[in-house]
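Researcher: Structure for this, please.
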Amino acid sequence: MPTPMATNRTESSLNSPVYAMHRRASSTRSLTLNQATALNHLDLTGSEENDGKTHDDGHDHGPKPPSILTAFAAGFINWLLMFGLCCAYGMILFSDEWHAQHRPLGVKMNLATASFVGLALSCFSGIPVAIGGPDLNPVVFLAGFVETIGEQIAKEIGLSYPSSGSRRLHDCGISNGVRCLAAATTEFCTGYHLASHPAECADYHSQFRPTVIFTVMVSSAILGLIFFCLGRFKLTNFVGCVPTSVMEAFLSCVGYKVFKYALKFCKFDPKQFCPAAFLGVLMYFLKSLHIGNPAVVIPLLILVPLAIFYAIVYGSGSDLEQVRSQKYMFPEMEDIEFWKVWSVWSELGKVNISAWLATLPDLVIMIIVCVLDCLLKLSGTENKLPVKVDKDKEMQLFGLCNILTVGTGSTVGYMQLKFNVIGFGVMGNATDRRGGICYAILCATGFFGTISLFNLQPRFFLSMLLFFAGSGFVAENLYGSGKYLTQREWMQVFIILGVFIFSEQLLYAVVVGGLLTCIDFILTYSKVSCLFGEPLRGGQIATYERFSPRLRRNLDHITDSWLLVVRLKGFLFFGSAQSLSRSVKSQIEAQMDMPLFRRMKYLVFDCKLLDGLDASASKAMTRLRAEAEASGVKVLWAASPHLLDNLQMRQILPEDALRFETLVEALRFVEGQALRYLQKMQDLWASMHPALALRRQLYESQTDFEPFSDVLTMDTMRHGCVWKFCSSLTLEKNSVLWEPECFGVGLFLLHSGAVGLFETLPEGGADTWGTPVAIYRAGWFLNLETLTRSRTQYFAVVLLEAEAVHWTEKQWFKMQTTRPHMTSAVSKAAMIQQRYESQLAKRTTDQDIATGATKTAACDDDICGYLQIAHILESFGFFEAPIHESEQDCHPALQSHTRTTSAIVPELTDHFVNDLQTAFATFSIAGQQDQCGETIPKEWVSTQHMDRVLHHSKVPQALRFAGIFNVVVGDGLGTFLTLPEFLLVGQQAIMAALSDPQIAKIKEVFDHHDMDLSGELDLAELDMVLTQTVYPAISMEEIGGINAFWDDDQSGKIGFDEFCKLVSRFVRHREQDWNILCACRELAGDSMATPESSLTAEALAQHSRCSLTTSRAEELLWAANWRCPESSLQIRDVLPMLMMDMQWRSVALPPQPPSKNHAKSGTELFDLYLTARTDSAPELRKAIANAVYDLRFPHVRELASFALHTSKHADEPETQPCEVTPLSPEEKPDTSEPSAIKTNKMIGVRKELHALLNKPNSSRVALVWSVFMLGTVIASLVMLVLDPLVPSMPKDFLFGFEVYITTVFSLEIALQLCVANVDGQGYLSYITSVSNICDVVASLPLYLELAFAMDSEELQLMRLNRFLRVSRVFRFVRLQKTESLAGPLVTVLAVIWGIFLHVGLDYVKKAK
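Model: Predicted structure, token format:
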């Protein structure tokens, strides 16, 4: 909505900080009254004063004590200025010569306002130094009323009233070779016209005088009543709104008219108005820049020119009558008694009501302008003086003053800001009322006494005062408004002013202003987005659900295509609704060429900030919903229940619409759909090959067993059995784990269920919960504050029954001191989570959502590198089967699996043996009889260690408990296993058998990196061998852990035997990843494929073990290709798709290890393991070797894949593929090198040209061009001034000079247009810029003369052409590139000279 008008900008501070603040407010379209208090509002002259407390003229001291001398001085100076202005105002009211007899009445009416309003304010105002009086704004409007009344009365009487174009004062004649452009005069009820119509003229004046007085009285009464009501009912802060640009235009029109009156007073004689303009403009800028003491400067500028004038008059031997006859002074004004103003009461019958009614349209505009002007003067007074203004009280006082003085016929009066500041500056304090009283008394002497002083004032003196008064309007409202208005709004100011200039009717300007405002409102607010920020894709916004980074990454990938979130704000009307519809439709249509699975599926409208919508917007939104759903897009609505009901009532929402109260609920719904989709895609991936299904199930078995899969990723981190240092907790639903400011709660790691963090809990048994800060699920740490010994921040509430791992402070300390690598791994995982969570938190804040949050950075996922490690190990030949199948003689099903003595399985380290013993103790039972009462078979169990035995079904769990995953244990073991037998099973599960060639290869690698030939690898050499082979990104901490873990002899170095064990473990550890690589090679149809190789839909459909179409294969590839959806899927990204934890589990954590596990000592235990390894029965070792599958044998890979249950997947209907037509050769962009080089060169040339034209300091040539253009502009301005003043100037010279000027200007415009978009500015912005429009206008005069044959001198076009030349002044301002005095000063002078040219040409023709 438009806001209350801005006023004339500060006269006081063209260089002040306040003025700089106005310039910085470039984005402000309009200002409220409260905001306008910072704008140092205009005074009666349309200008302002700076705070007397900060003047540069000696007024920066403290307040002075009241003094009668300073009070009288202040009152005298203000009276001196006000008397001259009242005389000028009287002349403005009755500016036409045929109304000259009424001018004393106009002066008296304004003096009455100055006397009575001034006295009332000085006595009763809350501002002791307040000065009241008439204002230029209402006077200009009243002058228009006078003209309207005269026309209407003359029309009714039958007189031909002079038209607006023929009743200007221009009778100065031609003298001293100077062409005067005002040599004609018009008679109406004077001279011959009076002699011809004596009765009609007498009747005219008898109606004119009382009608004018009545009109003034009514306008004062209406404004007084409005002032009083605004104050009485405290409505000063709720005054109607007027667009700022329109108000600036109206005030600019006032300034234009004031300048026109000033020229008119001088009879358009350059010898008079030039010095008057110089002195008036000088007085304005001296006051605005606070140069000198106002107590000295103002009297000098008023009295010295008068003294010089009289010195010249009497020094040349002339007298006042001779000077008056030469029209240097006004005709002598007869004084009238003050009671003549009240004669209207006896002449009410002569008031012409129809003429008064004709003024009512302009009266409405006058009321708006004067009310806002009055309010902003109050704000400016409070801003400039050390006083607190009660606006309501002051407005009441203004209203009472105007109401009570209606009988005197006085014009509208209120506080005058300039006079307030002058009085404060002279007296030095803001408490002395005597200055205002002196001022009112002196004004009263003129009202009740004589106004004969008027007859002593020359024409140029009153013109000087008007130039002084009007400069503020032009400098601040016309030029200054461009500092904070937009280009389009500033253009409105010029258009309205132009309409007023050429129509000379403010009503037409008002109509145009209203139309421009409406058009601007429609154009602006139809383009103003109803969106709170840009529409967001699903990958840019997250809920408070905390999924694992890997799952979140894939969710973002899916929802980035599926979901569009549109946040609405404000009020939705037809313009913004159409814009919204086009934006959303374009995004939907842009995806129509994509396959179905990649298209948008959900459109969410977040209406939290939406205030409402109109009927047109309702229809637009209804059509948008229907079209979206027709395209397969479901529309979701998030809004309050009240607004949702409103939308349903408007039939925007159908009965079955998806409705949510918050955006988060809608997002959670979409995330749930995406999760189900990912689950189906994961099932389909697993079904394509048994190896993929096996890998997925092994990962699920690990995540179901423990929450450490992404925490403890290396054997060195698991050494010591993590279960010894933590405890398992079952968390009941709705239980509160901790409250804010709790300490010592401990660290949690969720295994299942969900826990939410809340800022508050429901009170008094309420069942309404607030929005959680976050909801955590499996794999997330809770209460990370415990790592820094900080207190908790939120309430932690169990939302779903959960299982969690918990570390107390003592357990953490024990783990930290005895297992530092384990502690470091947990701490690192917690810190990574904290960093990741901070990124998610940013994506869930309103600010980030509004501005378009970016996606969370891809998580640090080591899984993507697993296949690369397996590929490196394969390149060394470590995944070759230890012996050939032909050498086997055993059961057919296992013939490629059975091993002979040619394959060596390295022995375990004591770390593994100890962890296996802990796992055995945890899951074993007493050794006499199992839970079912079965007798323990003797054929597979040694008879020495049967005190505790492990059931074969518990072997996989026991291995996982010891940190051994990704192995498949098949049938072939006995029902129960003793500890030695379990250790042998652990050996097969942990270590890979190595053949002699493989051991030789290990020896080769070992010797290559044994730089010192010591037979051992020190830490640096181990670092080299690991980083150059399998672990390029391994950290030194991890290398140190590996060194300590595999250093059996505690020498600090790794010997060859120890290095063989390390490689054997690597091979077994990456066996499943190598199996995936082999499966992907089969699916790709390329036996030599690497992890970086790509999978294609055609190969996938052809080689998949399940039935798969090409379209479904494309969908599978896209679903897994989170890295770059537009490119092919790399084989390395298949593994993360299989190892994506959906976090839907209800499996309990494993039991705690027994406190008394009958553990054997380290040496005893290891000896037991070595004995079992060497002395156990060959059948036992063979059975164990066969039971633990070695996937390096092809048939075993098939057998292992079916050892576990394969995943089931739903038989989904196939999506129909959308064929994407490739670009034809003609459509493909040409990126050939020569063209690109040519384009770059062209851009470089245009940048250099732009710098030459706009940056004078960029080069010497640019400086020369700038000086040349400045000289050309100055020359054109000089010629603009000389042309009307020097009649003898040759026409050929003038034409040639005009050709030169136009050629230079046109060339520059063409060059500027060529480089308009170099600095990022579009051509449209360049063309619509006000300064550039002025440049074009400045080049038009010659073209118009040539096009319309100006020698014929069509009057109106000639006047327009001359007026257009004045726009060249603005080129000078633009070339200055300055914010100083040049802009406003040149603008003021341009308007003065433009009026002179525009109006003068008409008078020249009439003179001829």
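Researcher: Any notable elements?
Model: The radius of gyration is 47 Å. The longest strand covers residues 602-613.
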